[in-house]
Automatic annotation (TrEMBL):
This is Uncharacterized protein. The lineage of its organism: Bacteria, Pseudomonadati, Planctomycetota, Planctomycetia, Pirellulales.
Length: 385
């Protein structure tokens, strides 16, 4: 195993160890809940749990791109159809909350293929979300509605050959799920959750005079991502969050003719963030908090696609180019809180790995690098406070 890949998986193992360690030790005596150190008076309200004193800063994440769907065409043209996932850690926390909001991710220089020369597109993700608590705040259900500026899935092979890959607006896969708070103490919390992605996005369809030579895929695949989340507040100003998740597929993509099928890869994801409160004024009406966060995100495709053509196992372009991938990203951001109900945040994400693979022509694909850099923003309204 190469040193870079080993480093990526060691980071993932470290996130696993931290998350499981916090989960196992969550029932231990952390102490201090009854002391003045944990109590904060704001008007007539007195809280005794540190994890409830301040708004919980949701993770920024590193964008939703996973390994693309690759389609080799004639004349040395290689096209990548970008593939989006709604990762469990994105703008999520270990605590159930009543909130609605909007995420915007701008990913710069995403490799999309070549037509005479490499083509890089900027990919944008727009995501509306809502979360509602139940069972006295121990359970929450959520709903995510995504829109993208991403690869054109309804394509003309001749146009791709002449002009190269392009982007257009697209509706994504609706996501929903639940989160159950299994432990809460004065300085830590742990929850278990499940995220489900329904196949509501656009399907890959070839049109035009050459469409009969290329595959159109019917996407009726559901994705299921169970996860465990931990929050730890070791001091009044510091907080650490982690997520472990595994994204599974329910079935295979089917060609329109029914002759072939592709079962896409599953993904293991480990996410950890550390934050520090630069400023807090819990009783204020304007700026009530300012927190800086540093996040590390790992996404690994540890298996390969499986494909059948007329019942015979075949390899895919995604396997031959991307194969098993280990993506590691660093995100740094700032979150501001206004009054008791609103927050806004902005962050920058950069990939830390780049495994280069040569393909037809002069193009080189960095398979462990989804983009060159990304800007991530969040707007959240907490309606349950």
């Amino acid at each position: 195993m190469k040193a870079g890949k080993l480093a990526g998986r060691l980071v993932a193992a470290g996130i696993v160890a931290f998350t499981l360690g916090r989960t196992v030790s969550a029932n231990g005596d952390l102490g201090g809940c009854g002391s003045d150190r944990w109590e904060v008076a704001c008007g007539d309200s007195v809280e005794s749990s540190r994890v409830r004193h301040d708004p919980v800063v949701g993770m920024f994440g590193d964008g939703g791109l996973v390994n693309p769907r690759a389609n080799p065409l004639n004349g040395g043209l290689q096209v990548f159809f970008q593939n989006h996932a709604y990762k469990a850690a994105e703008n999520n926390t270990a605590l159930p909350q009543d909130r609605v909001g909007f995420n915007f991710n701008a990913m710069q220089d995403v490799y999309s293929g070549q037509s005479g020369g490499p083509v890089e597109n900027d990919i944008y993700e727009y995501r509306l979300f809502g979360e509602k608590t139940l069972a006295d705040g121990r359970l929450s259900v959520d709903l995510m509605v995504p829109f993208y500026t991403t690869s054109v899935y309804d394509y003309d092979p001749l146009d791709l050959a002449l002009n190269g890959p392009s982007t257009d607006g697209s509706f994504g896969d609706l996501a929903f799920g639940f989160k159950w708070l299994v432990h809460e103490s004065c300085a830590s919390a742990c929850s278990l959750g499940l995220r489900i992605e329904a196949p509501t996005g656009e399907e890959m369809v070839a049109r035009g005079a050459l469409s009969s030579f290329y595959t159109s895929l019917d996407d009726d695949v559901w994705h299921f991502t169970p996860y465990v989340a931990n929050l730890w507040t070791p001091s009044d100003r510091t907080f650490i969050q982690s997520f472990l998740s595994y994204r599974l597929t329910s079935s295979s993509l089917q060609s329109s003719s029914g002759a072939s099928s592709i079962r896409e890869q599953s993904y293991f994801m480990g996410d950890i963030s550390a934050g520090y409160w630069l400023f807090r004024n819990r009783c204020g009406r304007r700026l009530t908090g300012l927190a800086t966060v540093l996040e590390l995100h790992y996404t690994g495709a540890w298996d390969r696609e499986t494909a059948l053509n007329s019942g015979i196992a075949v390899d895919t372009s995604t396997n031959s180019i991307y194969g098993r991938t280990d993506r590691l990203s660093l995100t740094a951001g700032l979150s501001a809180f206004f009054g008791p109900r609103c927050s806004a945040g902005v962050a920058v994400a950069v990939p830390l790995r780049s495994k280069e693979v040569g393909i037809a022509g002069p193009a080189v694909v960095a398979t462990d690098r989804a983009y060159d850099w990304a800007v991530l923003t969040q707007l959240t309204y907490y309606y349950g406070r």
